Amino acid sequence: MTVRRDFKEPARTRPDLVIGREEMFNAARDQLAGGGSVLLHGPAGIGKSTVLRALSAEYGDSARTVLRCSATESESHLPFLALADLLGLVLDEVSERLPAAQRTALESALTGRGESSLQRDGLALRLAVLSALRALAADGPVLVVADDLQWLDPASAELLGFAARRLGDTQVQMIFAVRTEGQEYDHYLNASPPDTLAFRLSPLSRAQVSALLDDRGYTGLPRSTVREIHRTSGGNPLFALELGRALAENPTPPRPGEPLPVPTSLRALVLSRLDMLPAEARRTLLVASAGARPTVALLQTAGRENAEAETAQAAELGLLATEPEGPAVRFAHPLISAALYAEAPAQERRAAHAALSTAASDPIERARHLALATTGTDPEVAARLAEAATLARDRGAPSVAASLGLLAARHTPGDSVPGPDERRLQASEDAITAGELDLARDIAREVLSRTSVPAERVRAWIIVIDTAGHSMADVDAVFPQALADAGDDPRLLALVRYQLAWRALLVEGDFAEARAETARSAELAALAGDRRTELLALSFQAQAETLMGHPDAPLTIKRALKEPQDPRVACHHNGAGSARFRWLVMSDQLPEARATITALLREVRRRGSVESEVHFLRGFAETELRSGHCGRALDLAREGLRLARDSGIGQTASAMLTALAEASGGDVEEALALAREAVEHAEEDGDQMYLSRALGALGYAQLVAGDAHGTVRSLRRVRELEQALKVTDPARGRWHGDLAEALVRIGETAEAQDVIDVTRERALRLGRESVLAVLDRAEALVRAARGEHDAAVAQLTSVQDRLAKLGYGLEEARAAFALASLRTGQPGPTSYDEATRLFRRCRALPWLRQVDEAAVTRPPEPAPAATPAPPALDGLDGLASMERQVAALVMEGATNREIAARLFISVKTVEATLTRVYRKLGIRSRVDIVRLAAGRRPN
Fold this sequence. Notes:
It comes from Streptomyces hokutonensis. The chain is built from 48 helices and 6 strands.
């Protein structure tokens, strides 16, 4: 408990290290910047103190005086202790400026030399604290920082609250943190300054927990382990870090089906009330902790006859949730279940699983419990687990199938058929489907270290290659080994050749070689009777030919769709359905493309295939973006990016697509950041194919941001890359019109015309109507730059109509915008109003901002006589720029959410800004803003 001037925090509390709290931190920072105060609240371990330290570190430098206290439960009974921590070191500075009665009361309370109490000196003490804060503020801003507000002694809390409510415009701000479980923060908010905003800290997401663990040095944890840490911790940062530390200190990671090691510190924290339960009730809770979805009925069937009374008793102690949730028995926090299980002896755990292996109704659960109740190998147990894994796979739960498969391998004797390594490989393939690439890779490496069977070794090598994703250069040494193990076996060679096709594309950037390898793979697979690999190879060949603009692409797609089909390939992201979708998108058949991708996405979600889901979310987002549904595209792209980052699959491609969506319908700065991230990752991976796509996204984002020179630099690189890759179909990246438009903006009309002419020749050959329309739009801008105004207007009018018929809503709106820019000052159906209407229909917010900026510079159009003049803004002149913008939108009737979307800020930032507006203008509501701007006196 200290008082410090020029307070500085260590580097760990910098705002960029407040992981997972960035939006909330920015909103709190805005509140403080506007002169307000902040109350942080949430459960123990949720990160309140971290955010409080970061905020106080940032704003401590701007305050002349920082008063700080951090109370503890053990000292909360000592009266005036928190007040002494806050004011003790500045007492000499302010005491002479207080009236005698107030000074005497305050000195007595802080020094303990008298017998001051709230009962005897209540008014004098209250006024003394208020006067002391005002005296300090007279010399400069004061920042009061109080952590663990719930442990403040009652006397100090009462005095601080009294002063806080009466500070008015005094330069005193407060940052408080208090532990709460629900909405009881209202009590503390009432004791804070009137302009205080409360922020509840929520649990972290899985991706945020992963980032937190990495930041604290617990790196390299498998994603499946991070997922379990997130589940067990409930997203609580303190719990997650303690679990991560326990894993880092444990040289033997938990086996499949086993819980995480729970450190003693957390066991003591969450099980402190367990000693109050009788022994039999504890055993009942242990059985509940071992079950996946325990109910009272299940516990009774498992032999816990008094389960109803015992679970009720546990709920009264806070160990189980008291809210009704059907028949389920739910622990108050996942960590309680994990700690209870970890605390139990191994023999008692096995007994709990043995009871559940007969009580559970689900065959998957019965098999899992049987495995965890059994030690050593057992062919019957292994067979039941393998059957359960198949059932889980059919249900669309590949992660569960992988876990059961590993349990089956553990219980499989070495001389069984199938053997343990075959079951491990199946589990590894299930892990890939579930998006657990690190687990799959580890299993495959383990198999390679022990088996000499060629089929198993090739299968393991393929898994190692698959888990490398687009970083295939990292596994270059695997291919010769895989070919050596394949020997002359056509089935095994087909598998390796298929992977070599991907290598040719991703590492060498050679579409022709990739096409040739897929053809070899398809032939070998057909010879071996491996229809699955044959279909995958044909589908890949079709996609390569489509991107190359090869005339055989439609025929190859038909071959890939020919019966018999393999259901595992039909909805695979590298299957014929995906190839057909890509062809439809590039051929301007958007309704058919949407129907195809919707069906594919539905099926892979049913199957639980994470990689395919990431891929198809991108495809769906791209289709919506082409159709001009920017809001929907942005939602899909963000969902895909979250899933990609969570699983570690397709992050570069997802960042690229999300950058396009953000630039069209979201935040341009975020679009630029994502595009640069995609470029950086593609360059690191040596992935020439996605490097060109990422640079295309960057160029588009730069164009929307108004950086024409940046657009030209990025898209010139794309042009060079695609020439080297021999990509001739302009519908692949659709960057050509953007490059031509940016070249016009910087005065390079000759190069712009060259881009248009070369691209138009290819688009005509392939029948790419939408590409031709966009090229004509760019050519109209070239003509306008050359002074051919009437021809440019006529061309743009035709282009807008063609794009509307093709269903390319965003490109239609851009054509209307270009047309309006050529008709400045000439009102009509194609004025800026038309562009605004079309961009609004698309929810293309960044483009709407461009229209607004362009409209400001056009000559004013005479308003109809009946149109009233807009209200004057003279009453808002004292506001800052952001405050004026928010107030102006309030006058238009916009909601807080609409204002946030329009200005590209958070809703919380809008709320904080409005609070400052009310305070500065001396008003109380949104209605008063309108009245003030209209020249009327607020009520």
